[in-house]
Amino acid sequence: MSTYGKYTAQTANDSVQVQEIKPDSTTVSLPTEQNRLNYKSLIIPAAFIGYGVASLTVKDLKQLNFSTRDEINEHRPDHIRLDNYTQFAPAVLVYGLNAVGVEGKHNFKERSIIYGTSMLITSAITIPLKHIVKEERPDQSNTLSFPSGHTAIAFASAQFMYREYKDVNFWLGISGYSLAVFTGIYRMLNDKHWVGDVVAGAGFGILSTELAYWLYPKINTMLGGKNKKSATMVMPYYQNKSIGIGWVKTF
Fold it and tell me: What 8-state DSSP symbol labels residue 24?
């Protein structure tokens, strides 16, 4: 009997290895990277978050917030709202690239669950923090400045693109960060956030996506991943200045 697919073998070092089985002359390509939480990948987001938190109280960092805002206002840049859209652009690119045949690490269902989870984690972190910290925005419109939600979503989306494409094409994988940086800069140019807000937002966004990849196997099982006849789609949406998550499940 000819069998093909994949199986896992537990070694003495407790590491799971994915094996390829080749039926006849057909080769089955299987992913080898596990969805594990790599602590080294948390160093950068932790540093960003630490800087952002420190900027709330450390005198020199607070002064940098004000001096940057003053420098921006001195040049009076036009306030454009592209940052409302570029925050999602890296994720849109992932789906677009897959649609034209440039496949990433996961299929449609898997990446939708991962990205949806990332957006939920990002919102669960940033929204309560805004109401707890109550930092006034540079334009004094409200006290929901810290951290930058737009920047958090942008870097969560960029990290999502990186994780999907880093093994396919490294330069393609990191290209989403340019859009994330653009979003963060324009949050400051639009007088909506301080430097510390943006840096912290970047950290929370990257952290959210890393947690989403780590949680994916458990969430996939919870959503019925063992039922091959079921299909689940989790997608973020932005409408009328509101951000949310849509969940559709078919049986």
Answer: T
**Residue 88 DSSP class:** T
Handedness of CA 94, 163, 7, 110 (dihedral sign): negative
Nearest C-alpha neighbor of 51 from the set 150, 205, 195: 195
198/208 Cα distance (integer angstroms): 15
Residues 21 and 53 in one domain: no
List residues bridging with 19 in a β-sheet: 7
∠ CA 204-120-62, rounded to 5°: 25
Q: What residue type is 214 in one-letter code?
A: W
Range of the structural domain that residue 133 is part of: 36-250
DSSP-derived 3-state class of residue 101: coil
Strand partners, 231: 250
Six-digit token pair at 60? 């020199």
Work out whether the CA dihedral 136, 199, 181, 75 comes out positive or negative. Answer: positive
The whole-angstrom separation of Cα 155 and Cα 132 is 22
Residues 67 and 191 in one domain: yes
With tokens 């940033």, the residue in question is 126
For the segment 130-172, what is each residue's pLDDT rounded down to a tens digit?
A: 999 999 999 999 999 999 999 999 999 999 999 999 999 999 9
Token digits of residue 32: 């080898």
Mark whether 91 and 139 lie in a shared domain. Answer: yes
146 and 128, same domain (yes or no)? yes
Nearest CA-CA partner of 152 in 77, 243, 229: 243
Are 122 and 139 in contact by the 8 Å Cβ rule? The answer is no
DSSP 197-226: HHHHHHHHHHHHHHHHHHHHHHHHHHTTTT
Give this prediction's pTM.
0.77
